[in-house]
Amino acid sequence: MGLRDPLYWLYERRLERKLGSYEIPKHVGVILDGNRRWARTSGLANINKGHQAGAEKIFELLGWCNEVGVQVVTMWLLSTDNLSRPREELDPLLRIIEDTVRRLGREGWRVNPMGALDLLPDPTARALKEAASATSGYPGLIVNVAVGYGGRREIADAVRALLYAESAKGTSIEELAERLDSEHIAQHLYTRGQPDPDLLIRTSGEQRLSGFLLWQSAHSEFYFCEVFWPAFRKVEFLRALRSYGARNRRFGS
Q1: Residue 214 lies in a domain
Q2: 33 is annotated as an active-site residue
Q3: CA distance between the termini of the chain
Q4: Which of 20, 29, 98, 112 is the most buried if burial means most Cβ atoms within 10 Å?
């Protein structure tokens, strides 16, 4: 360990210096995957300890993002599919999410909930709404917290909101169909007013997005890493930024 730590520190500093010549993404999305598997491989009988370790890692990630100048971070904490998990697993996970969201507010991050809040238990939905209200005026990094989130559900919600808004203005279906374009829908997404994600990171070795930011990721760069989320280190984050910065982004091709 005495030899490993200095080498790790030197490698981290080297990566940080190299980033000076690269563009930093404005918006980073992260699929925080692998909490349960990390708990099992760590010999922990209680998988909720994996979720708790993953929650603690969130605050490290936000600190790293703040250091390099990322403006928006979107974190997928719970999908709509996850809501069907057994209550003995889901309930403790929801309590961890509620505590995490409250702590985000206390530590000065601007919280923006994303997801079908109507599908969540009242205490969880309330914690998300209260954090959003309390931090709405905070400057700096925006933290999108995706809970009860699904990419297809987001698009359906956006279209539904668009139809309601246009109906309230007296617009007919025929008139809307005549002038509808992608920007009209984008204005009703959970991330409306924010830049689309430049970089999407998924931990745990899975190489798919599972519907994460389905609409917004059309031109995103993807980075997949093998480590489980609780074991995600700053060097993995810096490698993701290095990979992003070294790419020649060809939008639409």
Answers
A1: yes
A2: yes
A3: 46
A4: 29
Pairwise CA distance, residues 181 & 185, whole Å: 7
Binding-site residues for Mg(2+), in ranges, read 33, 221
Give the Cα separation of 237 and 239 in Å (integer).
Answer: 5
Does 186 fall in a domain?
no
Question: Does an H or E element contain 192, and which?
Answer: none
Please pick, among 48, 66, 82, 248, the residue that the annotation labels catalytic: 82
**Domain hosting residue 222, numbered range:** 26-150+197-245
Confirm whether 118 is a catalytic residue. no
Provide mean pLDDT across the span 64-74. 97
In single-letter form, the type of residue at position 3 comes to L
pLDDT tens profile 98-153: 999 999 999 999 999 999 999 999 999 999 999 999 999 999 999 999 999 999 99
Mean pLDDT of 69-85: 96
Annotated binding residues for substrate, as ranges? Answer: 34-38, 51, 79-81, 85, 202, 208-210
pLDDT tier for residue 40 given thresholds of 50, 70 and 90 = very high
- What residue has token string 């203005």? 169
Q: What are phi and psi of 232, to 5 degrees?
A: -65, 125
Question: What pTM was computed for the model?
Answer: 0.92
- CATH number for the domain harbouring residue 201: 3.40.1180.10
Cα-based distances in Å from 71 to 74, 108, 140, 176, 242: 10, 14, 7, 34, 17
Residue in 33, 144, 196, 198 annotated catalytic: 33
Structure tokens at 59: 């605050």
Distance separating alpha carbons of residues 124 and 91, to the nearest angstrom:
10
pLDDT per residue over 169-208, tens digit each? 999 999 999 999 999 999 999 999 999 999 999 999 999 9
